[in-house]
Write a structure and sequence with these properties.
28% of the residues are buried. The chain is built from five helices and five strands, in the order H-H-H-E-H-E-E-H-E-E. By secondary structure, the chain is of the alpha+beta class. The chain has helices at 2-11, 16-47, 62-72, 93-105, 141-151, and strands at residues 75-81, 109-116, 120-127, 155-160, 167-174. The longest helix has 32 residues, at 16-47. The radius of gyration is 17 Å and the shape is globular.
């Protein structure tokens, strides 16, 4: 919903129809979230508790996120290699990066690579935008992602792409037994 609202705000003056479409998607997502929350509350009340980890978004939610970004005007390609359990919290890197791309990079496209093997998950998000210097900007998004990667025992690079114009975020996170 935040992504859709940001997209609507970004194009409100220049493309009111695109802004309205983003607002309709925001409303739809809000209604869906409320329905899910009501279902969750019924579950909690019925069995006295809930597993918080089960409520967290996962990498399985990335295709829906990329579709939302495509609708907001950022052409996102998703490549997934490998499969397996990944640490909770890895998902958050993807929407944070794509939101930054949509709002700040002036990019027309982005690519999300999810590469999972027995020992690690790699999340690499690249765009064709104007790039920028690492760590610049007014928010805490990149710092927060780096802190999350460190907490998970991994690393995160963010900065200009080495292989093309644009920006990249490249996280490598270990998969620990029992993740």
């Amino acid at each position: 919903m935040v992504v859709q609202a940001a997209a609507a705000d970004d194009v409100f003056e220049s493309n009111p129809q695109q802004a309205r479409a983003a607002l309709r998607r925001t409303e739809e997502a809000g209604r869906q979230a409320l329905a899910e929350l009501r279902g969750f509350l019924r579950t909690v009340r019925a069995d006295g508790g809930a597993n918080e980890a089960a409520l967290q978004p996962t990498l399985d939610d990335v295709p829906r996120l990329t579709e939302t970004m495509n609708q907001a005007g950022l052409a996102v390609t998703l490549l997934r290699e490998g499969d397996g359990q990944v640490p909770p919290g890895v998902y958050r890197i993807v929407p944070e990066t794509l939101t930054n791309t949509l709002r700040h990079a002036r990019a027309s496209s982005a690519q999300v690579l999810l590469d999972i093997d027995e020992t690690q998950v790699r999340v690499r998000i690249t765009d064709d935008g104007r790039g920028g210097a690492p760590g610049r900007g007014g928010g805490h998004g990149l710092v927060g992602m780096r802190e999350r990667a460190t907490l998970l025992g991994g690393t995160l690079y963010s900065g200009p792409r080495w292989d093309a114009a644009g920006f990249e975020v490249d996280a490598r996170l270990p998969i620990r037994e029992g993740s």
